[in-house]
TrEMBL record:
MF terms (GO), sorted A to Z: transferase activity
Pfam families, sorted: CoA_trans (PF01144)
NCBIfam families: pcaI_scoA_fam
Annotated TM spans: none
Name this protein carries in UniProt: CoA transferase subunit A
InterPro entries linked: 3-oxoacid_CoA-transf_A, CoA_trans_fam_I, CoA_transf_BS, NagB/RpiA_transferase-like
Superkingdom, natural source: Bacteria
Family: Belongs to the 3-oxoacid CoA-transferase subunit A family.
Keyword tags: Transferase
Organism: Pseudaquabacterium inlustre
Length: 236
């Protein structure tokens, strides 16, 4: 089975539709599937519900889809760096389901593992728990969270073999494995594709059984969200 597609647009052409639930990996701007997001924007699909830790920044990452009004709802945990996100939410133009960061990761992981729901103490006594089932375990109150199973998951990895076995680098590993696992169809953008069998089995972070399609993007932009430099102690 050939999992490699010639472009991001080709990989998404027959699987993305209006009104879908999508998951997008990455943390801040680190490890986001830049080419796949651009292809999704160019597809013109709208009324999307997007699961992602954050929504990129203005003009980059998922921020591009906010500007084109293709996203109807975000399920995320951090939205602080995107002014257009803030504006749309406060103007009631965008639905938002705030989810604590660890809970969001576990909802995706549970979806990929076939677990429909789980109980957690995170969010008990807050707005996060409103309308959700709560139970007592060992003297503590827990809130039930439903798993997330997106129609399509878009992920980013550093390297893949032709069977889809993935290797991530550092912070880019945040949310990507869980998002890719959870998707009914998972499309992964990588910087390098090697022959099957050439990766050390002990270095593989996510097996290819979770990956349906691969797209090569050898030169992603990798924009830095906030550049911080160390000052010279002499002030020079």
């Amino acid at each position: 089975m050939n999992k490699i597609y010639p472009s991001a647009a080709a990989a998404l052409a027959d699987i993305v539709r209006d009104g879908q639930l999508l998951a997008v990996g990455g943390f801040g701007l680190c490890g986001i599937p830049e080419a796949l997001i651009d292809a999704l924007k160019d597809s013109g699909k709208k009324d999307l519900t997007v699961i992602s830790n954050n929504a990129g920044v203005d003009g980059f990452g998922l921020g591009k889809l906010l500007e084109t009004r293709q996203i109807k709802k975000m399920i995320s945990s951090y939205v602080g760096e995107n002014k257009e996100f803030e504006r749309q939410y406060l103007a009631k133009e965008l639905e938002l389901e705030f989810t604590p960061q660890g809970t969001l990761a576990e909802r995706l992981r549970a979806g990929g593992a076939g677990i429909p729901a789980f109980f957690t103490r995170t969010g008990v006594g807050t707005l996060v728990a409103e309308g959700k089932e709560q139970r007592e375990f060992d003297g503590h109150t827990y809130v039930m969270e439903r798993a997330l199973v997106p129609d399509v998951a878009l992920g980013k990895a550093w390297k893949a073999d032709k069977s889809g076995n993935l290797v991530f680098r550092r912070t880019a590993r945040n949310f990507n494995p869980a998002a890719i696992m959870a998707g009914k169809i998972s499309v992964v953008e990588v910087e390098e594709i090697v022959e099957t069998g050439s990766l050390d089995p002990d270095s593989i972070h996510l097996p290819g059984i979770y990956v349906h399609r691969l797209v090569l993007n050898a030169t992603p932009e990798k924009r830095i969200e906030k550049r911080t430099t160390k000052q010279n102690p002499k002030g020079v």
